[in-house]
Amino acid sequence: MQVHPPSDSRRPWGESETPYEELGGDPEVRRLVERFYDIVEETSPVLTAMLPADTRVSREKLYEFLSGWMGGPPLYWERRGHPALRMRHAPFTIDRFAAEEWARCMAEAITDTVSEPALAGFLSTELGTVALQLQNA
């Protein structure tokens, strides 16, 4: 049995340099995003009401954002400029319930797609915090 040393405290997501690498790179970011939107569409009328009928562009934007946010290629920045999350979400009424609902859907998607416990905990906590910071109502 091989014993692994505890994760470096500077890397609460695991052993890799970035969460992007720890997750498995591009295909796994895409898989997380697809699962997230599937969960939203299946279980969250509040969030679904904020989305266009065709969520392909929304899915692509979240994939691009998460890619860079996790330390991978800065796709969102390259293609769309600074994310300016609060400004881009300003047209939507985001109360505490909506923010928590987003965090719930993302946490469920993480549970379904991320096998490493440290990474899953890191992503759920950090993305949940981001969701709560976007409240505007």
Provide the low-confidence segments as ranges.
1-7
What characterizes the major β-sheet?
A: none
Kindly report the average pLDDT value: 92
Number of strands: 0
Molecular shape: globular
Helix content: 55-70%
- Class inferred from helices and paired strands: mainly alpha
SSE ordering: HHHHHHHH
The CATH homologous superfamily is named Globins
Please give the count of helices: 8
Topology of this structure?
Elements: H1 19-23, H2 26-43, H3 45-48, H4 56-69, H5 75-80, H6 85-89, H7 96-113, H8 117-133
Helix pairs in contact: 2-4, 2-7, 7-8
Report on this model:
This protein is mostly helical and 137 residues long. It has one domain (19-133): Globins (Globin-like). It is 64% helix and 0% strand. The protein contains eight helices and no strands. It has helices spanning 19-23, 26-43, 45-48, 56-69, 75-80, 85-89, 96-113, 117-133. Helix 2 crosses helix 4. The longest helix has 18 residues, at 26-43. The termini are far apart.
